[in-house]
Amino acid sequence: MVYDPQEIRPAGGRTTRETDEGVGSVHRTSAAFSREVTPYLSGPSGDSTVAAHNDGTAANDGAGNNLSARIARKLDPAKDSAKPVSQLINEQVFVDARPQNGEQLQVSDRRSVSDQTSKPPEVVVQYSSAGAPQQKPDFTITKDGTVIAHSDFEKHGGNVVIQVERQEGQVDPQQNPDFAKQQEAQARLLAYVNNRIKQDYPEAEKNGVTLQDAQGLVAPEVENQLGMRNSSQIGDNYSQETQRAVENLGRFNGSGRGSMSRERADGYFPQRDVPMQPGETNAAAAFKDTLAALVNADKQHPYETVRKQGHEYRAGRYGFSGRQISNWLAGLDLGDPPDPAKIEELIKQGKLPKGFNVEKLKQLQAMAKGMSEGKQPSAEDMKLLPKEMQETMATDLTGKMLKEAGNDSSVAALAWMQNKEVGELTQADLNSPEGLAIRDASQKAYSLATARQMSEKGDTLNFQDNGRGSPLGIEIAQRAERVANNMGTVGWCYRGVKRALDQVGINLEGGYAKQAASQLASNPRVQEVSKADMQPGDILVHQPAGYGRTKGQQYAGHIAVYLGNGREASDHVQTLIKGQGYGGTRVFRVVA
Question: At what angle do helices 322-330 and 358-372 cross, to 10 degrees?
Fold first, then answer.
């Protein structure tokens, strides 16, 4: 995902369609989300009407035929749950998009008794994707609420996948002008599928149908009313607020190109009330904001937030654990036993707040111990962690974590959220569904935090996420492509790449491309990777061979940024040079 606040800087404020009321909609309460959809589960079916897409056109079949005009009535779960997909297609409740040679499910084609003892299918709800791989849908709910059936889902026996259509760049359901119609159709379809599964599987009837909703597209009240069990991608050891944050950030996956106002972007982060501290870099501040976004602290009182996570409590804007608080205190030179003179010196240095003393130190140590043991800090306890002290703690602790993670912000964020040291993370932690979801969300939050730093109130932030490569890598690739297209020269590859990398804080010196390799190799924000593992945004440095037909092959070398799909950018865009004619190639990746 790439954010580029510099591409559009409107003088008159935001250019997007969001109102001030919509700025915080990505963090809306479940009640506000659900009031609009729960009545549809028991309401009358009525007549379907044709509605317009976001782009001003009606849903169509690719040949200009209006899909919603094919619908005779809305789905009524109370009456229609006895009918298979094929019958509802015949009754013009669903639009038929099944393969023409596919088998049609007749009313009598239900599973046998032996089939009913197998594991019930789960229901997957996902956004449509602009390029990212995803599960093939059984149903698509168009932006205007038309339901398209792609299969007789009861034939294949696997999970039932419901795809929610969106326009490119949409990351919030309420950005759809026909949001209410789409949500009504989703609630009705979920009720229908839920009922059909329960009819076939005693286990589902007893325990409920499992719902996979990684992007938070289904209202909790709908889940509860249907008795569905939401299978969180990050498990049950995180707060509901963190789960919601991961879901919201997950909506960027496959969203393609889009834009949002700076004000809407601010809605992903709890407010920071303390200015950047001396020595706090932009990268450090962005990572701290990333953690605050994942913790999803209270928007009005972020520094007073207390959350239950697993068996213990987390506190403050950054969700400090008892262990993290204890580790920070242990790293201070307090003396043993604590020395009031040393505490006073730390107060002068700004490490500890004014009025801090030995007694408050003991109280804070006891509070940290209690948090680790499952004791909730009181409002009075939280006064031991004033906001200035929280910022200092976060700067110190996260700086150490980032260093240990090789400046990989996603790994450091996972360690923080799991209350581990970076060195304690296992490959299972890193590659589990939980770990991958947290890391993916942290990468997106970090990119967004960085973009906010480079923008001003009223700016529009452009983003791109095509599901391939890291958000930072895609950002570098897009910047490099823009620089290359603006230059349009030949022979100035190093100059083009330097300009692109300057924009993300990677500064290269010298006049020849070959000089970049040693600089990138020694930069703590950069890792060397294999050519076989190249992703968009990676930097290829080709060493000269000492001979050849070009000056690059002879003595200067060549450098370029990999764009993906076999293309590279330097001072122009061209087909990827893989190293032929050169004296060796190294590939580097900016990771923070």
Answer: 140
Q: What angle do CA 44, 35, 192 make, to 5 degrees?
A: 45
Are the CB atoms for 496 and 483 separated by under 8 Å? yes
| CA neighbours closer than 13 Å in the CB half-sphere of residue 253 | 21
Report the alpha-carbon angle 447-268-190, nearest 5: 110
d(Cα 129, Cα 136) in Å, to the nearest integer? Answer: 11
- Provide the token pair at 321: 């654990």
Question: Which domains does the chain possess?
Answer: 38-218 (no CATH), 471-590 (3.90.1720.10)
What is d(CA 470, CA 536) in angstroms, rounded to the nearest whole number?
8
Quote the CA–CA distance of 477 and 538 in Å, as a whole number: 8
Locus of tokens 């006064």: 383
Helix (H, G, I), strand (E, B) or coil at 196: helix
Count of beta carbons in the 10 Å neighbourhood of residue 504? 18
pLDDT digits (tens, 9 = 90+) for 83-96: 999 999 999 999 99
**Low-confidence residues of the chain, pLDDT below 70?**
1-65, 101-117, 131-134, 465-471
Q: How far is CA 263 from CA 232, 269, 317, 455, in A?
A: 29, 11, 20, 11
Query: In angstroms, rounded to a whole number, what is the distance separating the alpha carbons of residues 327 and 324?
Result: 5
DSSP E strands, 142-219: 147-149, 160-164, 210-212
Query: What are 12-55's pLDDT values in tens digits?
Result: 222 222 322 232 333 333 333 333 444 455 444 333 332 333 33
Q: Does the predicted model carry a pTM greater than 0.85? A: no
Write out 321-373 in H/E/C secondary structure. EHHHHHHHHHCCCCCCCCCHHHHHHHHHCCCCCCCCCHHHHHHHHHHHHHHHC
Burial of 421 (0-12, 13-18, 19+ CB in 10 A): middle
